[in-house]
Design a protein that fits this description.
Blueprint: H1 3-10, E1 30-34, H2 40-53, E2 58-62, E3 75-80, E4 94-99, H3 109-125, E5 130-134, H4 145-156, E6 160-164
């Protein structure tokens, strides 16, 4: 997420309920699930900023292949803030990206999960204590979304899964 995006996020109206989320409970990931345009990226960015504000070494993983805010479509990425102590060779914010090769998770599930494991392991190796994971809007159970989301949860072992739904579309997941 670029600096302009982070500045814009600070100006958003945040629902008061978000303030009571137990984000600092444990040093395990926070995963955000939901359909397309439900506010996943906004919520993930809010969580990321809150953890950073409490000086908790935090990274953001973006798993949205079609609308990735950290890189090009067909990729997933990890961002570590500049003040985390993890610097690039040129002194900028660190980003890691993995090429998955599709703009939808359908047909790319093994590569997407492999990329998630690589990004999670990279974060652990550089000393990041918490991850916020912004998932894609793919929730079509008939096309395998439940299996994919459960596999992601199994890989990450999160302390908190935040699910944004309009009706009951996430119930099978």
């Amino acid at each position: 997420m670029g600096q302009d995006h982070m500045t814009a996020m600070r100006q958003l109206q945040i629902p008061k309920e978000w303030g009571s989320l137990p984000l600092r409970a444990k040093e395990r990931p926070v995963v955000v699930l939901g359909g397309t345009d439900t506010g996943k990226t906004t919520l993930a960015t809010y969580c990321y900023q809150q953890l950073q504000a409490h000086k908790i070494g935090t990274g953001l993983i973006d798993l949205d292949l079609g609308q990735n805010s950290l890189g090009m479509p067909t990729t997933v990425g990890l961002e570590v803030p500049l003040d985390s102590g993890v610097m690039s060779r040129r002194g900028r914010k660190r980003h890691w990206r993995c090429f998955v090769g599709g703009i939808s998770p359908v047909g790319c599930e093994p590569r997407l999960l492999s990329a998630l494991v690589r990004l999670r392991d990279t974060a652990q190796q550089i000393g990041i204590r918490r991850l916020v994971v912004d998932t894609s809007g793919f929730i079509n159970v008939e096309r395998g979304a439940a299996h994919l989301k459960w596999a992601m949860i199994d890989v990450l072992r999160p302390c908190l899964v935040l699910a944004l739904q309009r009706d009951r579309e996430l119930e099978p997941i």
